[in-house]
Amino acid sequence: MPVIVFSSPKGGAGKTTAATILATELAGMGASVTVIDADPNRNVVDWAELPGVPDNLAVIWDTSEETIMDCIGDAASKSVFVIVDLEGAASLLMCYAISMADLVVIPVQGSQLDARQAARQIDLINFICSSIPFAVVFTRTNPAITPKTQRHIEARFTELKVPVLQTKLYDREAYRAMFSYGGTLAGLEGKVSNLQAAIKNARAFVSEVLWHLRAGQGSAARIEAKEVA
Fold first, then answer.
1. What is d(CA 210, CA 125) in angstroms, rounded to the nearest whole number?
2. Can you point out the beta strands (E) in the chain?
């Protein structure tokens, strides 16, 4: 079953939010999902302790460098989708998890620092195995305005043929509220503003991730961190 790994060497890029959105939306579609929270901050575990977690979504956190590959393999034998939320630092655990991925999603905010860190992550993925598909997703973006810096980064990624999701995850109150109230986006009805816009954005993101899984996009891209400037 597909293993989708969320990885970024930079903290605060929106990795856990993107992983949780994907997991809950897939579960809402009826698929069984296992999330492996391999981030020491355990934010997905904290979310799972709140009410409203779908019955067909499980969260695992007790893993290590020695056990991560077995953990992913076991989860893949039981669930339709396995989603791995990795720590924000390079480690053997990160490398082992990436080596088992069917798709690596690299969250990036619209800053030059995030772009350079994403480039380093792409180098690492290609070092582990040049055939592992990956894609960048811009997070916490403004749905109304695209800053000049972000436009420059997007153009640079396009020039370097880095796979980038057309769908950006916008900066929505609903995405933050999931970690306060628990549960899914659909369960936030009456609790946050602009919920339907957030749900529409989330579902477009999920659809594109599934497309990349089917297409196996991203394996050919190889760039050096210094090229993103």
1. 20
2. 3-6, 33-38, 57-60, 81-86, 103-108, 134-141, 169-170
Q: Which two tokens stand for residue 181?
A: 């109230």
Q: Residue 76 burial (CB < 10 Å; 0-12/13-18/19+)? A: middle
Q: How far apart are CA 159 and CA 116, in angstroms?
A: 15
Residue pLDDT, tens place only, 157-192: 999 899 999 999 999 999 999 999 999 999 999 999
- Domain borders along the chain are 3-227
Q: What are phi and psi of 145, to 5 degrees?
A: -135, 135
Residue 84 tokens, joined: 């791995």
Q: Where do runs of H (alpha helix) occur along the chain?
A: 15-28, 43-48, 68-78, 92-99, 112-128, 148-159, 173-181, 195-215
Burial of 196 (0-12, 13-18, 19+ CB in 10 A): exposed
| Chain CA centroid to CA 1, Å | 17
pTM, rounded to two decimals: 0.92
- For 200-228, the pLDDT digits (tens) are 999 999 999 999 998 874 443 443 444 44
Residue labelled with tokens 């090229």:
227
Q: What is the CATH number of domain 3-227?
A: 3.40.50.300
